[in-house]
Amino acid sequence: MSRGKGFRPQMGGGNMMAKLAKVQEEMQKTQEALQHERLTVTAGGGAVTVVISGAQRVQSIAVTPELLQSGDVEMVGDILVAAVNDAIEKSQTLAAERLNAVTGGLGLPGM
Predict the structure, then answer these.
(1) Are 104 and 32 within 8 A, CB to CB?
(2) Would you say 84 and 39 are in contact if contact means Cβ atoms under 8 Å apart?
(3) What 3-state DSSP class applies to 18?
(4) What does the alpha-carbon distance between residue 13 and residue 31 come to, in Å, rounded to a whole number?
(5) What DSSP letter does each residue of the chain carry, written as one string?
(6) 30-69 pLDDT, tens per residue?
(7) 39: which strand partners?
(8) Backbone angles phi, psi at 49, to 5 degrees
(9) Residues in Cβ contact with 14 at an 8 Å cutoff, skipping those fewer than 6 apart
(10) In CATH terms, is domain 34-102 a member of 3.40.50.300?
(11) 58 CB contacts (<8 Å, ≥6 apart)?
């Protein structure tokens, strides 16, 4: 397909490009802010506490002495897995909500 001298993609001109640049800048700011946000999740009736960032990085895991003294290694492992998985899911939800707030009005594919 020949693209003559005057061919320009139909994206709404410079206005659309300016919107996309603005959205990209806002997305970057939002992602940086998410790195500093913290979510706290507990499991096992408060026996395990996981702190995770909005960028899905585990910051800390605390286990009560009572849980460790139970001697049930399998149960401790199960509670840890449940707490970490719950924390990751909540962090992903937070990130998706924040990023959707930036991109939601554009109707861009995949956003």
Answers:
(1) no
(2) no
(3) helix
(4) 28
(5) ----TT----S-HHHHHHHHHHHHHHHHHHHHHHHH-EEEEEETTTTEEEEEETTS-EEEEEE-HHHHHT--HHHHHHHHHHHHHHHHHHHHHHHHHHHHHHHTTT--TT-
(6) 888 888 889 999 999 999 999 999 888 999 999 999 999 9
(7) 52
(8) -125, 130
(9) none
(10) no
(11) 50, 51, 52, 84, 87
The DSSP 8-state label assigned to residue 55 in this structure reads: T
Q: Specify the residue for token string 């998985």.
A: 85
| Distance, CA of 28 to CA of 24 (rounded, Å) | 6
If one counts every other C-beta atom within 10 angstroms of the C-beta of residue 67, the result is: 18
Q: What is the CA angle 87-91-81, rounded to 5?
A: 20
All structural domains of the chain with their residue ranges: 34-102
Q: What is the pLDDT of residues 4-38, one digit of tens each?
A: 555 555 555 668 788 878 888 888 888 888 888 89
Tokens of 94: 């937070």
Distance, in Å, from the CA atom of 34 to the CA atom of 52, rounded to the nearest integer, reads 10
CA dist 83 and 49 (Å) reads 7
